[in-house]
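The following block was generated as part of the benchmark described in Methods. Ligand: S-adenosylmethionine.
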Amino acid sequence: MWSRYLHTRERDGVVAVFHELHPDPVYCSQEQWQMVKAGITDDVVTFIKDLRQRKLLIDSSEDDDREFLETTSALECKLNQPTILYLMTAQGCNFNCGYCQVPEIARKYGESMLSSADAFAGIDLWLEHLRDVYDPNHEYFVIFYGGEPLLNKQVIWQSLKCLELKRITGELPARVNFMIATNGALVDEETVTQCKKHGVMVAVGLDGPKVANDALKVDTDGQGTFERIIASIRLLVAGGVRTFVSASITPSNISEMSKYADFFKELGVEKFGFNFLKGRLLLKLVGESGLMDYYRQAAQGVIELARTESGFGFEYQMEKKRNAFDRREFFPVDCTCYGNQLVIQPDGQISNCPFYKARLGQVGSVGKNFRIWDQPIVQEWRKRLSLSHPGEAKAMGGGGCAWGSNELKGDPLAVDDSSQIFSEEVLNELIWSRYDRNQSRKA
Ligand SMILES: C[S@@+](CC[C@H](N)C(=O)[O-])C[C@H]1O[C@@H](n2cnc3c(N)ncnc32)[C@H](O)[C@@H]1O
């Protein structure tokens, strides 16, 4: 019998047949597919074998149930794995980007700075999590975030020292990465020296060439920021610091973003990634009627760029999904807020999301048995994940952003249209680009 997870896509007389939970398409002609569906299978023995091997042809519905349970439990394991510790060292920011709600959050809750005591308590609590579930096959990160994290440099350097000491004593696994996500303005020689000393990577926000960047990425005086960001990136790269660029997709760069690869590469950065905007300020920028166009155009831009970049794996938004597809993995989450991150907010409160004040307790007093994956908000937000919902692009879709849905639709469980559209378009792209690659290899 056919699996209930079987789906097809058709293009120019070719049919791609794939499994919803782990798409690894098999291709045939439309005529062959009609024959197979009619039960005429004599001439397509290999094709039938492929369908069986991929659990598209099964013996009973129990095979499907088993497949679903295996995917669910593998997903659960991945979700109960806190790969990221966010230390939000400052709530305030020296930029006032036209799409970012951080300045508004800072006005509402105060421009607090993380204390070194809370940073150390955050590190200890995260290590308690790792003691339970550390797995050397995963990559782990401590990310300094904000607001603008470099407004509180001393706590970053102190935290790095504390982390290094814990590495020496063996409390911190050897393969934990350190990263600062910054707007770049406060990067100086001391920053480069500290980053080199502790092997810190730096992700700098830059929205493209000057006109595109300065349209919305301005400082608190409303001045453009392009030159300062570029100078910082060059300083970091020249100092040998592993540097990345994170570009937000805005109305000012959306129509040309697919051409930015050379611009970013010329800066000497290791990788770049695109960031889909979320929240109320996106709504303000594009209007209710412009939202769907924004999501489609942004998805197309990232896919178009990945097409021209194929082989380099340079843009990481798309790369993550392509890797999952190539490894036949169920790609579980778009965001690490579903249990994969412990966030220490600047006031010492714990959250599962840097943008959302979940107020799960003060880091210094919750006790060492606190686990982020047990928190009711994490369990609740997991109900968003694609596995629990209908949809053919399940294996590529990861639930999107709960904070964004809450902001836009007043419900953290509402569908994230942006992530849904991106996942569907990426799945189609991956299915047909593999077919085209196979064909050109044969030619
Ligand atoms: C909030 S900032 C904090 C760290 C640092 N100040 C920086 O500029 O990278 C981190 C990233 O969030 C992105 N961001 C800001 N507003 C956003 C929004 N509405 N939706 C999605 N990402 C957003 C920024 O572009 C930036 O790259």
